[in-house]
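Exam revision sheet. Question 4 asks you to relate a sequence to its structure. Input first:
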Amino acid sequence: MAVACGGDDEDFDAPDGPEGEGSMEQMTPTQSKVHIQEVTTDFMDKFDPADQKEAITLFNDFGALYGDLDLPLNFQGETKQYAPGKFFRTLAKGLSGKDVVALSRAASSIVYNIKFQAATGIYEPGKESWTKVQNSDNIVFRFNDKSGHRAEMIITGKGATNDLSFDFNDEDGYWDYDLQQWITEEYVYTYNISIPREITVKVSVGGNTLVDGRVNSTVNVKGHNFDINADMTVANIRVTATTTGNDSKVTESSEVYVSGEKLATTSATVNGNDLCNIEKIYQAMEEADSDDYDDDDDYSSMLTVSDFIKNGSAKVSLMDQLQIYAQGNLNKEMEMLMDSYWDSYEYDGNKNAAKRDCEKAANVFNNNIHAQVRFNNTATDQATITFRAGLYEETYYNYWEYYVEPLLYFPKDGTTYSFEDYFSGFNSLETIFNNLVNRYALAFGK
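Answer key, structure tokens:
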């Protein structure tokens, strides 16, 4: 199979299909629901808020006491959004159960939003901003929690650096009253960034380490490729993540451990064109914000998401007992349909025409998006996904809307269920998740 570095769509890898070995008996929808609930309940029960209480308390204390402090001027650009405030907020969100994989992203946000060499030093809270109190080869934030215990966050850069340099073209202009014409001025912005290829992040209170993270990366802007490995441990939760990319493929995989036990794995792959071409991505962003496109014909030449991403796949596995796979293709038609409306306003009340067009859109989705639910790492589909035209009505306002609705199809008996209907009830996945969040909220008085 060919791997493209650009060019025709047929050169791109197909999305990865579902995996699995051996087979098992297909379950009825009721049996499948019981299995899914048992697995997800066991998964959620592994997260005991008492195990992370000290860490979450520190993160919340930091936000309350120091979250509004500015950073010194030597912290340049976007750094103010990320270090250290967003770092602690991301960790707190991850520990709350809302997004465990965010623990690894927190470490990466430190790496790619700090101009490391310009920011080294030891910092303590001042009146309105962090104050540099001492020189250091590292970046160190020292502070007290609400109980007066001394805490510190240490960011260390090691080894060689990724030296990144890239140009962005931009233009501006003004009206010259003497010449009575618009004068356009073009600019070239050059960005030079140097990032240590290994960065560690540690957070401790009274000598007790609560956060221990490491990010190793190799980034080549001109060569359009990168490789990032993150390993973050917060209290008893460890998350590892690997992301690699070039112009034709970007992949990411992660693993979640609690008290040393692997509970979940995720992976995702995107195939496309110019996926690591910073200049071209910037051009697309500029065109999206531009006022130059003022009629429908112009938009056909705009760079949009489908010019970069052609297809992709994803997998989530919980405790080796529940696997969810998804594959999808993206093209201009799909992109247009994702932004379409089939409602009483767009169709001037012509309900039959709206339904017909929405059904056509559902068929396009069925041809381009596929998903499977499997159990115990086998190759047996317990459920797949299909799409149909769903209807939403508000009789009081005489408003209706057709929309593309995903359904779960169970091959055991040929029945289909909406996600809302299938997961409704006291023991639904939503209830299980909310119970977890509520446990954490009660544990910390929120």
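Marking note for examiners. Residues 1-10, 78-82 have pLDDT under 50 and may be disordered.
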